[in-house]
Design a protein that fits this description.
The chain is α+β, with helices and mostly antiparallel strands and 234 residues long. The protein has one domain (11-216). It is built from six helices and five strands; from the N terminus they run H-H-E-H-E-H-E-E-E-H-H. The chain has helices at residues 23-30, 37-44, 62-75, 98-118, 171-180, 183-198; strands at 48-54, 85-90, 138-140, 143-150, 165-170. Strands 1-2-5-4-3 form a five-stranded mixed β-sheet. Helix 3 links the parallel strand 1 (48-54) and strand 2 (85-90). The longest helix has 21 residues, at 98-118. The chain starts with 22 loop residues before the first helix and ends in a 36-residue tail after the last helix. Residues 5-19 have low confidence and may be disordered.
Length: 234
């Protein structure tokens, strides 16, 4: 697996947005179709850490991704300021349906969770571990993350990237944004951009901490009967 890392003198800063960022992802984040102002800020500040994850449909890269994400969670104090993000970019592959992408996404997350369970890593504190719980958030290395799935077959342009990708945003940074009063402003900007580009707000996106978080990771519309495939191990 190919690792894209920060300069040795500033490992906590992630990649340089101006030089080391993969050109396809840099163009996507810069585009008007990508509405997330938080990720745009992380990109501009060089706080968007990138990992090349290989084959999206293979579990062989799960260990490398787990190790890289764990290092990011343990060594990135900037993530609590509401701007740092970790993006795993996978190799280009044939366009998948939204259902197939979602299944592969949860296969990768299951692999990450299984490694945590095998190593005896506790679930992140202050969030629920059961996918159906209202306070659920996915945990890796003891850090809770909200995950944004991107892929070429996404129905909404905000999620339509040229290859599969998973963006991990620390749960605690949303808490910090809300505490600082920045969350509502960012949310308003994102929704305005969604309306301009799509004509409507993504029906799967709810206020942070007030909806089914697991159902939002894949980006497709799912009904109230949708069940998360994650098997949480004790």
């Amino acid at each position: 697996m190919k690792h894209t890392t920060a300069p040795p003198q500033k490992p906590q800063r992630g990649l340089s947005a101006k030089s080391d960022m993969p050109s396809d992802f840099a163009a996507f984040v810069r585009s008007d179709y990508f509405p997330c102002v938080g990720a745009k800020s992380a990109f501009a500040l060089g706080l968007l850490t990138i990992f090349e994850g290989g084959d999206f449909l293979s579990k062989q890269g799960d260990r490398d991704l787990h190790d890289a994400l764990t290092r990011f969670g343990a060594g990135s104090p900037d993530r609590v300021n509401g701007v740092a993000s970790f993006a795993c970019l996978f190799d280009p592959c044939p366009v998948m349906s939204e259902e197939d992408f979602e299944a592969a996404l949860w296969s990768r997350l299951q692999g990450l969770h299984d490694i945590d369970a095998e190593e005896g890593v506790d679930w992140a504190q202050r969030v629920g571990r059961e996918p159906g719980a209202p306070d659920f958030s996915f945990s890796v290395g003891g850090i809770a993350y909200f995950i944004v799935g991107l892929h070429p077959g996404a129905s909404r342009a905000a999620r339509r990237f040229c290859r599969p990708a998973l963006v991990f945003n620390a749960h605690e940074q949303f808490e910090q944004l809300r505490h600082d009063g920045r969350y509502e402003k960012m949310q308003s900007i994102i929704r305005e951009r969604e309306i301009v580009r799509h004509g409507s707000i993504n029906p799967m996106l709810t206020d942070f901490g007030r909806g089914r978080e697991a159902a939002q990771y894949g980006g497709r519309y799912v009904s109230s009967s949708w069940s998360c495939p994650l098997k949480v191990r004790t």
